[in-house]
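Predict structure. Chain length: 343.
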Amino acid sequence: MKKIMNTIKLKLKNPLYQFILFGFLMILLPLLSPFLSVTTVDALAKTLIYFVVALGFSLLIGYGGLASLGTSSFIAIGTFVAYAGINEFEIPFLVTILLGVVIAMLVGLIFGIVSLRIEGMYLAIVTLGLSEIMIELFKNFDRFTGGVSGTTSRAIQMFGLALTSSETLFIIVIAVVIAMILTYNLINSPFGRALLSIKNNDSAAQAMGISIIKYRLIAFIVSTVYAVTGGILYMGYIRFSMGSTWGLAISLNILAAVVVGGAKSIWGVLLGTFMIFGMDLILFKNIPFLADSKFANLSFVISGLLIILVTMFYPNGLAGLINEVKYKIKKMRLNKKAAKDHE
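Prediction complete.
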């Protein structure tokens, strides 16, 4: 038994096994339905979807150093593709995702080309402008599809069957695990190291033969693919979307989730996503005091204070704070061991 436990501990040191274990635990959520309300499960599913989007954004800002405020419009594109694929063209869901990836690559290429000439706050302003244009187009999309205050989609069809919410959650979890594994491989690949070198010093990176144009374009494309995929999953699970939902607030919250959690840590991004989205959806909405209409915006105040505190005192996010605590605990143990050996 001890040998088996040691083997499990050794396996779990590998991040890839950690991601798979996390996915397995998330798949068990529907089995807890007698203990969890439908609203809570829906909130967890939505948080996981935003986590996929945040992972892509962490590559863009954490490794590429590119601040974009167009994330919400990419999610909106995903909802549009999902609606068209499921309701208008009635194509298989997997084909819808592939179609979304192709469209995301084209949109990411456009945004990436814009980023080649500008950077910093100017890039954020330009992407915000492009995002607002797209959001206005999607508001009209609601009218074109007959929605009075939004667009409602049918259930996902796979193998001739309409998927239930629990079955769709299973697809979301698979997408999350794939996104985590893909992100881990990207940040530990030559692509991730090249992006990081460009962020730290683009002149030095260029002198080393790294193509800034190439890697910035790839970063925007990858980030857009994640966001559009998140939009497809959102429409597939929630089955409802409004153009006005995907405004600046969502982009800023995605940015906050990455910054608060730690842009260079996958688990940090997960923690940050839960702090920004999950706490509001799962905790604050279920507290009668905060759910009251008089205090409807108090959750945003709490999230804002959290962002300020983390940014001021822990620039590496909550992941950096956890690593610092682990280091201090390890140091204390070593000091105690050294003291005992000295005695």
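Summary: Residues 212-238 form the longest helix (27 residues).
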